[in-house]
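Closing statement on the zinc ion sub-project.
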Amino acid sequence: MTRRQLRDAGLRPGGHAPVAILRCRRCAYRPLRTCTRPAWLYDARLAVPKRVPSLAQEEALDRAMAARQTCQGCGIRQPYCLPRADRRCADCAAPDLAVAA
Ligand SMILES: [Zn+2]
Ligand SMILES: [Zn+2]
């Protein structure tokens, strides 16, 4: 199977070398030409399932993102990452900036 076929089947090469390298159709008739687009074939039996992030991993990721996006001033989660210094949204940080200016 080619890498693409493996991917379509939800697999990926399991770290093994390709079992065969096919010359492309155009080169099949020209044995002397160096094939620039060979197809690398992998053994489907040695392929392993594509890595799918588990639900737990996704939840951990979401918690990390929530910590970065939740404003310490109003407690509202913003769709962007807040400054690491104070973790406050633009609305909560603005009054301070106005005072400072
Ligand atoms: Zn070729
Ligand atoms: Zn806020």
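Residues 72 and 88 are 5 Å apart (CA to CA). With this model delivered, the sub-project is considered complete and its resources will be redirected to Aim 3.
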